Amino acid sequence: MDDFWDQNSESWIQVVRDQGIPSRAITSPALVETLVQQSARRILDVGCGEGWLAPAIRARLPQSDYLGIDGSPGLIRAAQAAYPEFRFTVLNYAALVSSSTQLEAEPFDAVVFNFSLFERDIENVLTAVKRELRKSSGRLVIQTLPPAHNISELRQEDFKTMSAPFHGKMDWYHLTRADWIKKLEHAGFTLESEQTPQHPETQAELSWILVARTT
Ligand SMILES: C[S@@+](CC[C@H](N)C(=O)[O-])C[C@H]1O[C@@H](n2cnc3c(N)ncnc32)[C@H](O)[C@@H]1O
Fold first, then answer.
1. SS (H, E, C) the chain
2. Tens digit of pLDDT for each residue in 181-207?
3. Ligand 1 centroid to 202 CA: how many Å?
4. Domain map (residue ranges) of the chain
5. 24, 92, 116: which to mutate for ligand 1, most atoms within 8 A of CB?
6. pTM of the model
7. Whether the CB of 65 sits within 6 Å of ligand 1
8. In the chain, N or C terminus with fewer CB closer than 10 Å?
């Protein structure tokens, strides 16, 4: 999956930085606010993309310490170039899963996935990031698409509605709420709170933000 992102890194950077996804005007501040409410100091941004969250969170939590990881070398290069005062590392989820050591000596207060958890076997990724969280006070924060209504299913996204050209398709699993919760529990997390940011005029649900603690 990270190949798709590296191949399309230039277009993704352009779309995000030119505000080419209108719903992000709502969903990005909603995520930042969730982290502010957690008073998270050490933040691990998993699948950080071109790195927008680093300065956004620093603006609200000046004492925060951020590490962004992503499987795409192109996106990490762009993140590091745009935000040199923050730390970014190339790391794909498979490497995270197969490693048995923590990324850094000090654990994180929050592990964040912002539209970056699309695999079928998310339990393995979630189990791996649990190791990175501070015991009992650490929180997992996931922003994703609103859950599927009836059944969980494989979908494909070609990003053809975007203002920049994308090549190939991204597979992703649209899970029901029940399946999300089952997978969280299987990985050792309990859902603590959730919200569904909405479009201010149409009230359409734009995303789903979950906050989970370790069980
Ligand atoms: C939709 S983008 C979101 C990027 C960023 N979180 C944001 O909010 O703009 C999904 C990101 O997840 C990363 N990603 C997806 N699957 C991955 C994997 N298996 N290993 C590492 N990174 C992955 C991609 O490289 C991409 O940067």
1. CHHHHHHCHHHHHHHHHCCCCCCHHHHHHHHHHHHHHHCCCEEEEECCCCCCHHHHHHHHCCCCEEEEEECCHHHHHHHHHHCCCCEEEECCHHHHHHCCCCCCCCCECEEEEECCCCCCCHHHHHHHHHCCECCCCCEEEEEECCCECCCCEEEEECCCCCCCCCCCCEEEEECEHHHHHHHHHHCCEEEEEEECCECCCCCCECCEEEEEEEC
2. 999 999 999 999 999 999 999 999 999
3. 28
4. 2-214
5. 116
6. 0.97
7. no
8. C
